[in-house]
Amino acid sequence: MNSVTVFAPATCGNLCVGFDIMGLCYEKVGDKVTVTKIDEAVVKIESIIGGEGIPLDPQKNTAGIVLLELIKIEKLSFGFSLKIEKGIAIGSGMGGSAASAVGALVGANSFLEKPLSHEKLLEYSLVGEKLASGSAHADNAAPCLYGGAVLLSNNEVISLPFPKEVFLLLIHPHLIVKTEDARKALKPHYFLGEYITQSQNLSGFIVSCFKNDLELMKKSFFDVLVEPSRAPLTEGFKECKQIAITMDTLGHCLSGSGPSQLTLCRSEEQAQNILKEFESIYSTKNIALDSYIGKINNEGARII
Ligand code: HSE
User: Fold this and answer.
1) pLDDT reported for residue 177
2) How far apart are CA 169 and CA 185, in angstroms?
3) What is the mean pLDDT of the chain?
4) Global pTM exceeds 0.90
5) Same domain, 47 and 82
6) Chain centre distance of CA 54
7) Measuring from atom 1 of ligand 1, which residue has the nearest CA?
8) Tell me, what's the pLDDT at 2?
9) Tell me: the pLDDT tens digits for 154-179?
10) What is the DSSP letter of 42?
11) Which numbered atom of ligand 1 lies nearest the CA of 14?
């Protein structure tokens, strides 16, 4: 067979308190990338469905550029043609640029005589992230590739044992926030007190995963560094967060740089109830909303 299709899931970069160093893999929503091996050592993007404005030029496309890099560095004598089906909206905060790149790499890897490790594929995927947002952060690509919740520590991907009982509510209000712009919105300097609170919250969150301690998770799921600067970019975020706190969820945050948002829920029933409230907020604002309720996806990108 000279063609494979990969499902590359959406992800939540930052996972609230781990700016650029934590992420989580969602179920149900993602991109599909069909990779076909071709004789010439080039990359051709045949079609992109559902991604209006995404360039077909492989140099300007995250899936294309990572495969060009793969061909160059691994000195491949063959190339790839791609068909991309975007299930993740552009500028949604669900890791769409990383998903297409990871999907392409996982597909291409299946044609290599000696398939590369996840570590190596992650390195290639960062070329795509640099192209998409000007910064080579791995907090979307790593959870997409490895699945689950991950922590990036000194270039190592550490899987976090995320509590199995937690339901994830993901909402995507139809707004666009470009990661590049959301990065420019950040303050260049922070107070020591803010850094201390964020360190407490990050360490508390990580410990809560290892101890399966939901109350510690709830106390720790507050981003005092990045979210205050980005909240104004996502209309309705503050209201949603207030509701999530009032209704005793385990936490609410921007998914990546927004406008999508993740709520950690204690049960599926709680997720359904919160969703009704969020729908009412966005319908008052006349902003369309997509939503997904599910568990963490421990599998990551896979050939289907
Ligand atoms: N860590 C990146 C950011 C992720 O927040 O800018 C974007 O998905």
Assistant:
1) 93
2) 26
3) 96
4) yes
5) yes
6) 18
7) 20
8) 93
9) 889 999 999 999 999 999 999 999 98
10) S
11) 1
State both tokens at 174.
């139809």
Show the ligand 1 pocket: residues with CB < 6 angstroms: 13-14, 19-20, 93, 95, 137, 139-140, 179, 182-183, 256-257
Cβ contacts of 173 within 8 Å, gap of 6 or more: 234, 235, 236, 259, 260, 261, 282, 287, 288, 289
Whether residue 142 sits in one domain with residue 228: no
Give the 3-state secondary structure of residue 10.
Answer: strand
pLDDT, tens digit, for every residue of 262-283?
Answer: 999 999 999 999 999 999 999 9
Same-domain pairing of 142 and 10: yes
Residue 64 maps to which CATH number? Answer: 3.30.230.10
Tell which atom from ligand 1 comes closest to the C-alpha of 254: 5
What's the CA gap between 178 and 13, in Å, rounded?
A: 14
Please give the residue range of the domain that contains residue 56: 3-158+299-303
Q: How many domains does the chain have?
A: 2
Close Cβ partners of 148 (under 8 Å, ≥ 6 residues apart):
24, 25, 159, 160, 162, 296, 297, 298, 300
Q: Are residues 179 and 150 in the same domain?
A: no
CATH number for the domain spanning 221: value is: 3.30.70.890
Residue 252 sits in the same domain as residue 222: yes
pLDDT at 66 over 90: yes
Rounded to the nearest angstrom, the distance between the alpha carbon of 137 and the centre of ligand 1 is 7
The residues, any chain, with a CB within 8 Å of residue 229's CB and separated by 6 or more, are 185, 186, 187
CA 299 to chain centre: 14
Q: Report the 3 state secondary structure along 162-193.
A: CCCCCEEEEEEECCCCCHHHHHHCCCCCCCHH
* Same domain, residue pair 213 and 142: no
Are 103 and 170 part of one and the same domain?
A: no
153 shares a domain with 23: yes
Please give the pLDDT value at position 228.
97
What pLDDT is stored for residue 214 in this prediction? Answer: 98
